[in-house]
Request: fold
Amino acid sequence: MMELWFSEFHSTDFKVDFRIRKQLYGQYSDYQHIQVFDTYEFGRMLVMDNIVMLTEKDEFIYHEMITHVPMAVHSNVERALIIGGGDGGTLRELCRYDDLKEIVMVEIDSLVVKVAKDYFPSVANSFDDPRVTLLFEDGLRYVRRCRDMFDVIIVDSTDPFGPGESLFTKEFYGNCSHALRDGGILVNQHEGTFYHNDAVEASATYKKTSPIFKNTFVYQAHIPVYPAGHWLFGFMSDRYHPLDDFDPDRWNARGLKTDYYNTELHRGAFALPNYVYRLLHEGVLLDHYYRRAIGGTVWPPQNDTLVHDGEVLADIDFSEIEKHG
Ligand code: AG3
Reply:
């Protein structure tokens, strides 16, 4: 019998394959191509524009880490905003906090919410919570008109291509900082660091956010279906430090049962591998010291200047990199 596989390219020269039992859904919305597959290994899988957004088997890792880290640091969250997150996973985790009074969710694509409700009932299970206001709108336009409104903002976006692109701009982060109440926390999905294109985006995102907030940190999680199984989240706040202001006893006293997040792991997640640290602080990509031959030429070229959106991220000094080994 013919086998069915779905491939996602993690770089031009590397892909992962999921063996598929069946395609359950496929439709173009006004914004993107949305597909749902029933996979053998990961259960149901949501794919947008050929990029895996979530699977039933590992979505808990992403949604717990994007939600519980800021919620465990802020001492009194009353109002929260989710930008994106149409599948409902982040909303599900936020709704577990009884003291939250109001949650606004701004998702550009109503079809994502519909598909999530139809195919991922264990993820999209909190849209009926009375504290939730769901708006179908562009997140950038929404935050432009918000002032001092939210204690926590979570940006649960796609990659910075297509509909998610505006959620990776300086203008958006600046507007989020105004939309936060005094001392609020902004968390975003911050891309990966291993493959070239993801790493350039992660580096650019850090470079854009760090001048805006007093504290800008990055933390990591092991997410099997995302490129290299390793993904970053950004933590930004003018008041809160993710570790110094973190009170594990307070969070543990809530008695929330989680499958990935715990207060020990919270501390560990902010300890970054050296190559990730170098990427964020010096703009040096792993590809810069693992130079390889592509099509007969060495890539990337010597004296590489890392440019993103016309802005120089780093002028690489290869003699220094060689020294690091
Ligand atoms: N948001 C997408 C994370 C980026 C995945 N990127 C990739 N596979 N190249 C996830 C939405 C879950 N609520």
